[in-house]
Amino acid sequence: MADRGPPRTDEPPLDKGQHPVWAIVSTLLLGGFIWWVSQSWVIAVAAIWGLFVHEYGHVLAMNRLGMGPARIYIIPFLGGVAKSQRLPKSEWDGVLVSLAGPGFGLLAAIPFFAGFIATGHGEWLLGAAVIALINLVNLAPAPPLDGSKALGPVLARIHPNVERGAMVLIGALVVFWGVTTGRFILAAFLAIALIGHLRRGAWRPEGRPLTGRESAQSVGLFVAAAVACAGVGIAALLPLAGGSLPGALGVAGGFLGIGG
Fold first, then answer.
1. Are the CB atoms for 48 and 108 separated by under 8 Å?
2. Strand partners for 91
3. Which member of 3, 22, 212, 257 has the lowest number of beta carbons within 10 Å of its beta carbon?
4. Which segments within 6-115 are labelled E, that is strand?
5. Beta-bridge partner residues of 72
6. How far apart are CA 66 and CA 88, in angstroms?
7. What is the C-alpha to C-alpha distance for residues 12 and 208, in angstroms, rounded to an integer?
8. Which residues lie across from 83 on neighbouring strands?
9. To 5 degrees, how large is the angle CA 204–CA 171–CA 153?
10. Exposed e or buried b for every residue in 103-133, given b needs 16+ CB within 10 A?
């Protein structure tokens, strides 16, 4: 997830960052929790590594677009968030920052594919699939996930209430998914974020709105990122399913808590 800075320019600047001890402890707690749930140190490492690389993608984009210096903040049991010191100059910059996380984050899967090639152990492929899943879920167009910041400005060009309605509807569906699949911490976090978006006075405080061309490019980049995330996930699961695409999709459905 990417936080593109304070919602109003009159807010105080961000602090100098988390205390390093707290960041380390929070990361260890998150890793321990993932290991306890998955009973796999490979998956725990993949999740932490994948989250870090994802957020670092946001940081790189923020710094490149003049929003830095950006930093990664650890959220216990949830992961992290990249925070910038300045708002984007335009909604187009905001779209690029949002999609930089999932795009760059897929690079985190490379060591896990290499681990499978070197050892032949399928657990490494599960790690790569988890990384793909982290980035794919972040593309859901629900506040505060990256997808909402990539597609929200496009919908706002139609009418601000169209964006609001779509984000609220999809956000509610994602919260429902979290509750019904046992992802209660994620569901609670998303529910709180959704309520915060509803209570926000200005729905779109960022700079210059998207142009028509930028809107088309935003949709194209979003689709490309989603296809890339899904492709990496399926590539990781195919060998585990004996090369069967339906089998790989079934395993993916199990990861997402959907399907039979």
1. no
2. none
3. 212
4. 71-75, 79-83
5. 82
6. 8
7. 22
8. 3, 71
9. 30
10. bbbbebbebbbebbeeeeeebbbbbbbbbbb
What is the DSSP secondary structure assignment for residue 121, as one 8-state letter? Answer: -
**Do 175 and 187 touch, CB atoms closer than 8 A?**
yes
Going by pLDDT thresholds of 50, 70 and 90, the confidence category of residue 204 is low
Whether the upstream peptide bond of residue 153 has omega within 30° of 0, thus cis, is no
- Cα 242 to Cα 178: distance, rounded to the nearest angstrom: 29
Nearest to 28 by CA among 10, 53, 47, 1: 47
Cβ count within 10 A of residue 28: 11
Give the H/E segment covering residue 2. Answer: strand 2-3
Point out which residues pair with 73 in neighbouring strands.
Answer: 81
Q: Which tokens sit at 241?
A: 């399913």
Helical spans, DSSP H, in 71-211: 91-105, 110-119, 122-138, 146-158, 160-180, 184-199
Handedness of CA 250, 225, 214, 89 (dihedral sign): positive
2-22 pLDDT, tens digit per residue, is: 665 544 443 434 445 555 666
pLDDT of residue 21: 65
Q: Give dist(CA 120, CA 138) in Å, integer.
A: 29
User: What residues does 204 pair with on adjacent strands?
Assistant: none
- What type of residue sits at position 174? V
Q: What percent of the chain has pLDDT over 70?
A: 83
In this structure, are residues 57 and 104 in contact, taking their beta carbons and an 8 Å threshold?
A: yes
Half-sphere exposure of 217 (CA within 13 A, CB side): 11
User: How far apart are the C-alpha atoms of 86 and 8, rounded to whole Å?
Assistant: 10
Please tell me whether residue 82 adopts helix, strand or coil conformation: strand
How would you classify the pairing of strands 79-83 and 2-3? parallel
Q: Is 70 exposed, middle or buried (0-12, 13-18, 19+ CB in 10 A)?
A: buried
